[in-house]
Structure formats: structure tokens, C-alpha cells
Amino acid sequence: MIKALIFDLDGTLIQTEVLKATSYAQAIQQLTDHAVGEQQVLDVFGKFVGLSREKVVEGLYREFLSELELHLGSQDSDHIKERIINKRLSIYDEILKDTALLSKHFCPFTLELLHKAHFEKFHVVLATMSHLPQAKRMVTLMGIVDKLDLILTRDDVDKGKPDPEIYLKAKNALQLDSDECLVIEDSVNGIKAGLSAGMQVFAVTNDVTRRSVHSGNLLDDAYIVDTLEDLSSRVFGFIQAET
């Protein structure tokens, strides 16, 4: 019997994956003096969705290694990756200050599911690869702080998704078994993490993750939700069938 719903944040409750992708794309474009275009970065970003910041930067560094080395005048990988992180954080911090912009990126149907789960007395958990300050700002803006029984972020684990550590930590904190937890994710790496934790996973797709989620063949189509208006009925239909 499902007793807890565990939600990813970026791309699941708020479409910050699009904003994050844009911040990385603009950072690399600026660092390479436009030798790498913003769209080039966006085209490959889907494979890094759901990973920790460090792994995203590692992946992008490898994708655009020659251009970054040429324009930054360095072959020191740590130096280059630090430059990417610093430039990207500067851009993303400016995005996070724009409350009106963030509000336009809320995911209403996933938030509807979260509110319903809270109303129905399920445990509601946030498990995100964002760091705590960013996660706190997002859940405060969305007005869901008091709906969450537990918030886990990248700062709480040693290994990021697709490792299942964050989901295992959630179920242990709630003193639940894996089959009592249902995960809501949007990315291949998040899905892998939930499945590796032995949990049922529903995927909510978006423009950044839809193709990779379907082509990843990790979930049966019954657990992939492209039409988000159907999310609550699909999830609660599954829960009721399990009881």
C-alpha cells in the first residue's frame, strides 16, 4: 500500500530544467565567445537532466572541450569546470531573482497532485538534486512548505541521482518500505534512481525530457504521463488499484 509520494523538484514541480539549461547554455556561449551557440548546448542538455551540478558540468565540459580550452586558454579541467560553474551560477542567480518569471514556470498539475496527496494524508516528500538554498526558495514561492513532511537535497547525500541514495534516505526517514513509496520524476536519471530504490515511479515529461524518457525504455507507457491533466487520476487510480 502506498503511504508516501516523493516528488522531484526541477522539471517536476517547477520547470526550472528549462531555466537551468538556459543558464548553462548562456554560460558556455559567453565563455567561448559565441564559438558554441546557446542552441548547441540546449540540444545536448537532455542527457544531463536530473544529474548533480558537478556531473552536469563534467558532461558539458566533455561535450565542448576543444572550444572551452581554446577560448579559456587552459587545459586544466578543474579550472575550466570552475569557470563554467561560476558563470552559470551568476546567470542562474539573476533568473532566481525574477519572481514573475519563476511563477510562470510552476507545474500546476503536479502541484495539484501534491496538494491532493497532502489532503489525503499521504506523506509528501521533496527529493531534489538542487542545493538547499535554491530548493527552499522554490518551495516557498510555490507555497508548499507546510505540505512537505521532508525535504532532501543534494546537500543531504553523498551520491546524486541516478544513484538511489536520496530515495533510500527518504524511505528510511519515514520508516517505510520501498513498495510503500511512489516517486514522481521527469528525467531518465531520476527514474533510474527511483527504480533502483525499489519504488514505483511515474514520469511526468516536458519538452526537455520527453524524448529521452520514452526512448529510455525504463517504464511501461502506463507510468509515463505526457498529458499532465491526467496525472492525478492516473496516480490515484494506481494507488486505489493497489489497495
Broad shape: elongated
Mean pLDDT: 94
User: Compute the gyration radius: what is it?
Assistant: 18 Å
Largest sheet geometry? 6 strands, parallel
Q: What is the name of the CATH class of the largest domain?
A: Alpha Beta
Fold and architecture overview:
By secondary structure, the chain is of the alpha/beta class. It has two domains: 4-15 and 106-242, HAD superfamily/HAD-like (Rossmann fold), CATH 3.40.50.1000; 17-100. It is built from twelve helices and six strands. The chain has helices spanning 16-31, 38-45, 53-63, 65-72, 77-96, 99-103, 108-119, 132-142, 165-174, 188-196, 210-215, 231-242, and strands spanning 4-7, 123-127, 150-152, 181-185, 200-204, 224-225. A six-stranded parallel sheet has the order 3-2-1-4-5-6, sandwiched between helices. The longest helix is centred in the middle third of the chain and has 20 residues, at 77-96.
Summarize it:
Its cofactor is Mg(2+). This protein is of the alpha/beta class and 243 residues long. Helices cover 53% and strands 10% of the residues.
